[in-house]
Amino acid sequence: MLACTYIEKGKFQLVEKPKPVLQNDRDAIVRVTLGSICTSDLHIKHGSVPKAVPGITVGHEMVGVVEAVGAAVASVKPGDRVTVNVETFCGQCFFCKNGWVNNCTDENGGWALGCRIDGGQAEYVRVPYADQGLNKIPDSVTDEQALFVGDVLATGYWAAQISEIRNSDTVLVIGAGPTGICTLQCVRLMEPKRIIVCDKDEQRLQFVRKNYPEVLTVGPENVLEFVKEHSCHNGADAVLEVAGGKDTFKMAWECARPNAVVTVVALYEEAQALPLPEMYGKNLIFKTGGVDGCRCDEILRLIESGKIDTTPLITHTYPLRQIEEAYRIFENKLDGVIKIAITADEGE
Q1: Under a CB-based contact definition with an 8 Å cutoff, are residues 94 and 106 in contact?
Q2: CATH class of the structural domain 2-151+293-343
Q3: H or E stretch including 61?
Q4: Which InterPro entries match (predicted)?
């Protein structure tokens, strides 16, 4: 089968690999019908994910059809349409039982697919712990609607849930990329008084204004003054940092009011400083880390009911055989790209 493979730092290549097989009675084999490229894939390519293993098939954002299941798998069967979770988690350890699935103690717990084990920018993928890692897609939900459930949408939902957002709050979302837009959609479900989105890309801010006209937008050059002007307590009540830029962590805590929650969703390519003397007295609460993506069933129900729609994010579609061109477009942010869908083959 064809598989987009991490060769070495700076190089992905489409190569032929054997079709995966069941290795454990809790595994499933999924035929990938639609995949996508994530910014985290670019972090692997750039060498900023130390756990990433050269030779692995990349990709952790996909939907498909179950081809085979191990003897212990109970929640899905061959023929089921499913979303695939970015996280691998056993469901039984201390962390899983508390909902902290990113910290699953299994040797491949957390983000494994497309990082430490073969992922889904391929024709087939093996999913460990399939009862936890796969969620059945309702018949009324299309592959396109469900594509981001297991990764960027799960991330946005998790971030909104842990940010302690109230109806009276002003919420700042830093970053209007794919994960930022998914986070925005999930923040809107919390119905805060005001939402502000900051991004340096005017095209992305235009996308926000077009699709979410009630949301305020601002560029980074005057974000602090704008947030203070449009909040009740000299800063945002909750800040969700989804950009991962050079200065966006500092922007996040500076724009937060005293005693605010700052949720860091971004994956940085460089170390960030925590200047405690400058922060002293703000009494900020920081929440950080990888997504605990264990509420995909809830997200699918929200999609089914029309409360979440991420299909406008799909601006480009390429077949798997042309994924190298898709990466070129995505990595260089060409042609107004937001997200790229990767179809199973050129015939689809």
Answers
A1: no
A2: alpha beta
A3: none
A4: ADH-like_C, ADH-like_N, ADH_Zn_CS, GroES-like_sf, NAD(P)-bd_dom_sf
